């Protein structure tokens, strides 16, 4: 029986993690589904707000931190991952989540993406991929199909094969690689929980359609997405085969490797980088 002085603390609800700032996304934007999935995931994890930090770059998707009631930082275009890396090194106790778009993460931020995967710090990276630059009014992005002709800048399409985010994350060293869909906030919420719980760099490729510049995608992606149907593999070769044969619409965790004591490795990597930075600072002050 509870003592007369004990107070029952209610479990957090998804809406407790949402700020009072009203999203300015276009009605029907896929990013609403990601906001809903993320707040649901944070509530499921019951992680106190002061232990969570969500950082982003620039783009419609990168507005996400403003809509959350936890620590957040809306940074520079393409620089969500350097922010997340620095923050995780300085504050390894925080749950650090980076978020942004396909333009932000794979174009201007592409180099940071490679090295964040390789560094494998305990950071969750959510890329809200709508295959377009939404904020700057609909130019082709790295994940746009080569024959997409709607932008006046590429009237004959880009003619280039699209960037393969999951294959590149895998090749660069990410220890968790998954795909979700904003049109399935419950399934996506579960994926985000698993990504946050993973003690290494967890990359979640999220199909999140742009209602305004690619209206055709909403119905198509809803109909085309399907569960991957296979459990995550720990084998790099098997994962590569799965990802390279995938039709781009399979949802689930494709690859997850629990490197022995990954959390400890992550903490010691943070400590050694912190040590290096302290040496540079001391050198500069001499
Ligand atoms: C250094 C720099 N270059 C370019 C821009 C212009 N810019 C702002 S957002 C953006 C692309 C946004 O697309 P994406 O990251 O895919 O996000 P979405 O808006 O589609 O969610 C660009 C090119 C900028 N703000 N800063
Ligand atoms: S322009 Fe596209 S990505 Fe940006 S808010 Fe509107 S629907 Fe969403």
How does this structure look, described?
The protein is of the alpha/beta class. It has a single domain, classed as 3-Layer(aba) Sandwich (Rossmann fold). It is built from nine helices and eight strands. It has helices at residues 31-45, 80-90, 102-108, 110-119, 165-172, 185-197, 216-224, 236-245, 262-285; strands at 52-56, 71-74, 95-101, 123-129, 176-181, 202-207, 226-227, 250-256. It has an eight-stranded mixed β-sheet with strand order 2-1-3-4-6-5-8-7, with helices on both faces. α3 (102-108) packs across α4 (110-119), α4 (110-119) packs across α5 (165-172) and α5 runs antiparallel to α8 (236-245). The longest helix has 24 residues, at 262-285. The model has no long low-confidence stretch (mean pLDDT 93). Thiamine diphosphate binds at residues 58-61, 77, 100-104, 108, 128, 130, 132-136, 141, 210.
């Amino acid at each position: 029986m509870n003592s007369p002085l004990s107070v029952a603390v209610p479990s957090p609800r998804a809406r407790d993690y949402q700020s009072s700032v009203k999203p300015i996304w276009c009605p029907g934007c896929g990013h609403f589904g990601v906001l809903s999935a993320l707040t649901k995931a944070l509530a499921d994890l019951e992680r106190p707000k002061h232990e969570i930090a969500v950082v982003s770059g620039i783009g419609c998707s990168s507005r996400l931190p403003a809509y959350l009631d936890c620590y957040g930082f809306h940074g520079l275009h393409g620089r969500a991952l350097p922010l997340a890396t620095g923050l995780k090194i300085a504050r390894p106790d925080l749950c650090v989540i980076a978020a942004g778009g396909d333009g932000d993460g794979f174009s201007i931020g592409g180099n940071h993406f490679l090295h964040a995967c390789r560094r494998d710090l305990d950071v969750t990276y959510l890329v809200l991929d709508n295959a377009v630059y939404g904020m700057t009014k609909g130019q082709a992005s790295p994940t746009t199909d080569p024959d997409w002709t709607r932008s006046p800048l590429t009237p004959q399409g880009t003619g280039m094969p699209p960037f393969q985010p999951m294959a590149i994350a895998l090749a660069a060293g990410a220890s968790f690689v998954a795909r979700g869909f904003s049109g399935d906030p419950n399934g996506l919420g579960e994926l985000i929980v698993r990504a946050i719980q993973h003690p290494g760099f967890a990359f979640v490729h999220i199909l999140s359609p742009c209602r305004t510049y690619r209206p055709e995608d909403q119905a198509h992606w809803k109909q085309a997405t399907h569960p991957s149907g296979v459990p995550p593999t720990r084998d790099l070769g098997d994962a590569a085969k799965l990802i390279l044969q995938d039709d781009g619409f399979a949802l689930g965790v494709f690859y997850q490797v629990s490197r022995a004591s990954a959390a400890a490795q992550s903490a010691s990597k943070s400590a050694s980088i912190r040590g290096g930075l302290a040496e540079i600072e001391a050198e500069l002050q001499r």
